[in-house]
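Field reference: sequence -> structure
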Amino acid sequence: MASINSVTQKEKAYLEDALQMENLCITKYSVYMDQCQDREIKNLLSDIARNKRQHVDTLKQVLSGQVSSYQYQ
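Structure field:
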């Protein structure tokens, strides 16, 4: 298992940017779900937000050194 020390500063910066973008997407999809009346679209947005949360969890694991970033290449 690789630690965060095994990624370069540039890679770490990219991962942190990706984490911020995923969190922004989650926020936006939540707002869209609240505004949406169509149940099917609301479910689709919920599924997408759930997928984004999984991405956030994975990025956090990589940044904390729990998981090697090379597993996801």
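Note: The chain has one domain: 8-68.
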